[in-house]
Write a structure and sequence with these properties.
With 250 residues, the chain is an alpha/beta fold. It has a domain at 10-143 and 162-190 and 240-247: Vaccinia Virus protein VP39 (Rossmann fold, 3-Layer(aba) Sandwich), CATH 3.40.50. It is built from nine helices and ten strands. Strands 3-2-1-4-5-10-6 form a seven-stranded mixed beta sheet, with helices on both faces. The relative contact order is 0.16.
């Protein structure tokens, strides 16, 4: 869930956490992972974010180490763990700066920066996984993100480019003689907003707009796009990801 060290400021982290209340990713991903890790007691969640998978894993009785470079994300995870009476070991550090012990299973979910050039991460991660590795990535290079495929032409007069997906990782694994399994999953992630002003602020923050020149077009687009429900506005997203996974040979 993490991006770069400075990507997740407090504002973005809290928005992401609020969206988790309307996400089916934890349920869908763990319904696949847990039956395949019944013999695994310890999990390392790389790029844990605010606990999307770490907290459900802890709730399932696993001993979890959550690693993320974002202080804001880890503080939210720790807050939610306390509120739920769960124990999660947290580490605030980038992957390449952390001192880590081996765990039974490693999970790396939605951390495109680490898998942009996957061989280096895989070579470093494999020795730390005693039994299994699970990598969750986008499964469609033409997939949308926050309506960018409509917004980029509207606001900037240019198309939103293709996104990275799991194929590069899978091919790299194959070249490394790691013959992984792939499971395609679908899940919902609906982002709630208090009002249209907050929604405009959300998109400006994520796109990186600091001026007001696009506010009118952005507001008009979102007023038509967002769904009103129970006194709030929702951006409804349906996502497709690949779980690339393998068990280590004994």
């Amino acid at each position: 869930m993490c991006e770069g060290k400075g990507y997740w400021n407090r504002l973005k982290a809290e928005w992401y956490r609020r969206g988790l209340d309307y996400s089916t990713l934890p349920e869908v991903a763990l319904s696949f992972i847990l039956p395949r890790t019944e013999d695994s007691k310890t999990f390392l969640d790389v790029g844990s974010g605010c606990g999307t998978l770490s907290l459900p894993l802890a709730r399932a009785g696993k001993k979890v180490t959550a690693l993320d470079p974002s202080k804001a994300m880890i503080e939210i995870l720790e807050r939610d763990a306390r509120d739920a009476g769960l124990k999660v070991n947290t580490i605030i550090a980038p992957w390449n700066e952390a001192s880590l012990k081996p765990h039974d299973a490693i999970i790396c979910a939605n951390v495109p920066q680490l898998l942009k050039e996957p061989r280096k991460f895989i070579e470093e991660a494999v020795p730390l996984a005693k039994k299994a590795v699970f990598l969750i990535e986008n499964a469609d290079p033409k997939a949308d993100k926050f309506y960018y495929r409509e917004l980029y032409p509207l606001l900037f007069g240019k198309p939103f480019g293709e996104r990275t997906d799991y194929i590069k990782t899978y091919n790299t694994l194959h070249d490394m003689s790691i013959f992984a399994n792939v499971e395609i999953i679908d899940y919902d992630f609906d982002q709630p907003f208090i009002d249209i002003d907050e929604a405009v602020s959300f998109w400006k923050e994520y796109i990186g707009i600091v001026t007001e020149e696009h506010d009118g077009k952005l507001r008009g687009f979102l007023e038509k796009k967002l769904v009103k429900k129970k006194g709030m506005l929702f951006a409804k997203f349906h996502k497709k990801s690949a779980i690339t996974w393998w068990r280590k040979e004994k």
